[in-house]
C-alpha cells in the first residue's frame, strides 16, 4: 500500500481533563504552533528531545537545548529515562519550563516518562513524527518503558500540555512505518470509531484521536473504559517481546486484533461474520494477520499473563453484542485452542 496524500485542512481535538485539558492539533504545518504553545505555558526555557533531523524541529520561541534521541524499542529503557533526566538537570530545567519530544512512539513514551519523573513532573509537548505516534502514543498521557520481562511494565500517567500532529512529517515515512500506524487505526474499528477505511489520512488520525480523547476524558487512569484502547494489545505486546521486537507494535496489534475476533467468536460473544470482519479490516490495510511460524504458544500465554489488565489469569478486551469490553478470567484452554487455530506464516 502506498502512502496516501496528507495535504488536508488541519483540525483540533480537545482532551477534556479539567485543569489538565489540552488540544491535539492535526494537519500539515501544525508543528509551527510550537512557539505559541510554549508561550501559553509561560516557560522561559525548553529542552527538545529529538529523534529527527534538527530542521524538523521548529523554534520553540525560548532559549533551548536539543538532545539527540533514537527511536526504537532498544532505547525504551529506564537507563534512557535516567540519562534524559540528567541532561534536563544539566540544562538547568525547572518545573516552570517545558520538555518537547520530537519522534516516533518510543521517543514519545520515553520522553513523556522522563518529563513525568523529573522534578516530579514538568510540562511536555509532543511532536509525533510517525503515524503510530500520531494516532495513539502521543495522546492520553500514558508513558512507559520496557523491562526484559515485558512491554511497558514501568510507567506513569502524565498528560502533555499540547500535541502537534504535523502530517508533513509523514511524507518521508517508509512503507513499514505506515503499516505500523495502520495497526492502531485498524483496531479502532472495533472500539467505537466506526469504519475508517475510506477516509483521508487526516480524517483517520482525527477519528482515532477523537475516540481516544472521548475514552481518556471519561477514564484517565485505566479503571474501566480505557481498557478498550488495548484492543488487540494483549497478544500484540506478547508477540513483540517473543519476537524480540521483530514484529513492530502496529503489526503485532494487527495480529492481536484478528486473534481477539477469533477468541470472541470462540466464547460465543460474536458470530462468524463479525469474526471475519476482524480479518477483513486488518487485511484491508495490508497488515500481517498470521502468527509468526516460530513463536511458541506457551511463551505467548506466559507473557499475556503479565499483561496489566490480567489480575490473576488471562484477560482480554473483546467484541460483543454491546460492543467491546474487558473480559477477565478467560479460560486458558480456550486461549490455547484459538492460538492453535491461527494461521501461521
Topology:
Blueprint (H helix, E strand, L loop, with lengths): L10 E5 L6 E6 L6 H8 L4 E5 L13 E5 L9 H13 L7 E6 L1 H13 L6 E5 L2 H7 L4 E6 L2 E8 L4 E5 L8 H14 L12 H18 L14 H10 L6 H18 L5 H13 L12 H8 L11 E3 L6 E3 L4 H10 L4
Parallel strand pairs: 2-9, 3-4, 3-5, 5-6, 6-9
Antiparallel strand pairs: 1-2, 7-8, 10-11
Helix pairs in contact: 2-3, 3-4, 4-5, 4-6, 5-8, 7-8, 7-10, 8-9, 8-11
Quick summary:
By secondary structure, this protein is an alpha/beta fold. The protein contains 11 helices and 11 strands.
Report on the architecture of this protein.
This protein has helices at residues 34-41, 78-90, 105-117, 131-137, 175-188, 201-218, 233-242, 249-266, 272-284, 297-304, 332-341; strands at 11-15, 22-27, 46-50, 64-68, 98-103, 124-128, 142-147, 150-157, 162-166, 316-318, 325-327. It is of the alpha/beta class and 345 residues long. The longest helix has 18 residues, at 201-218. Residues 1-8 have low confidence and may be disordered.
Major sheet summary line: 7 strands, mixed
The stretches of 5 or more residues where confidence is low (pLDDT under 50) are 1-8
Distance between the termini: 20 Å
- Integer average pLDDT: 94
Q: Which outline best applies?
A: globular
| CA radius of gyration | 19 Å
The beta-strand count equals 11
- Give the helix proportion (percent range): 25-40%
**Could you give the order of the helices and strands?**
EEHEEHEHEHEEEHHHHHHEEH
- Beta strand %: 15-25%
Please tally the helical runs, counting DSSP H or I stretches of 4 or more residues: 11
Category by helix and strand content: alpha/beta
State the strand order across the main sheet. 1-2-9-6-5-3-4
Amino acid at each position: 500500500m502506498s502512502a496516501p496524500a496528507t495535504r488536508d485542512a488541519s483540525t483540533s481535538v480537545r482532551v477534556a481533563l479539567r485543569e489538565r485539558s489540552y488540544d491535539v492539533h492535526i494537519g500539515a504545518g501544525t508543528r509551527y504552533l510550537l512557539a505559541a504553545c510554549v508561550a501559553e505555558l509561560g516557560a522561559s526555557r525548553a529542552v527538545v528531545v529529538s529523534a529527527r533531523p534538527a530542521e524538523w524541529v521548529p523554534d520553540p520561541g525560548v532559549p533551548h537545548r536539543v538532545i539527540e534521541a533514537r527511536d526504537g524499542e532498544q532505547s525504551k529503557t529506564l537507563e534512557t529515562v535516567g540519562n534524559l533526566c540528567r541532561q534536563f538537570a544539566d540544562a538547568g530545567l525547572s518545573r516552570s519550563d517545558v520538555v518537547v519530544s520530537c519522534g516516533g512512539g518510543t521517543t514519545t513514551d520515553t520522553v513523556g516518562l522522563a518529563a513525568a519523573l523529573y522534578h516530579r513532573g514538568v510540562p511536555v509537548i509532543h511532536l509525533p513524527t510517525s503515524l503510530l505516534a500520531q494516532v495513539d502514543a502521543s495522546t492520553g498521557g500514558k508513558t512507559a518503558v520496557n523491562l526484559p520481562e515485558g512491554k511497558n511494565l514501568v510507567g506513569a500517567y502524565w498528560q502533555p500540555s499540547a500535541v502537534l500532529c504535523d502530517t508533513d512529517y509523514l511524507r518521508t515515512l517508509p512503507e513499514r512505518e505506515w503499516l505500523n500506524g495502520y495497526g492502531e487505526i485498524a483496531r479502532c474499528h472495533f472500539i467505537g470509531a466506526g469504519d475508517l477505511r475510506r477516509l483521508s489520512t487526516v480524517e483517520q488520525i482525527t477519528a482515532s484521536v477523537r475516540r481516544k480523547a472521548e475514552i481518556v476524558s471519561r477514564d484517565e487512569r485505566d479503571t474501566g473504559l480505557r481498557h478498550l484502547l488495548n484492543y488487540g494489545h494483549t497478544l500484540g505486546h506478547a508477540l513483540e517481546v517473543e519476537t524480540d521486537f521483530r514484529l513492530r507494535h502496529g503489526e503485532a496489534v494487527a495480529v492481536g486484533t484478528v486473534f481477539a475476533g477469533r477468541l470472541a467468536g470462540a466464547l460465543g460473544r460474536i458470530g462468524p461474520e463479525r469474526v471475519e470482519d476482524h480479518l477483513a479490516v486488518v487485511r484491508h490495510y495490508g497488515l500481517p494477520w498470521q502468527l509468526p511460524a516460530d513463536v511458541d504458544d506457551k511463551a505467548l500465554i506466559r507473557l499475556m499473563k503479565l499483561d496489566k489488565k490480567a489480575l490473576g489469569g488471562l484477560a482480554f478486551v473483546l467484541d460483543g453484542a454491546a460492543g467491546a469490553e474487558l473480559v477477565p478470567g478467560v479460560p486458558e484452554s480456550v486461549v490455547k485452542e484459538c492460538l492453535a487455530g491461527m494461521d501461521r506464516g
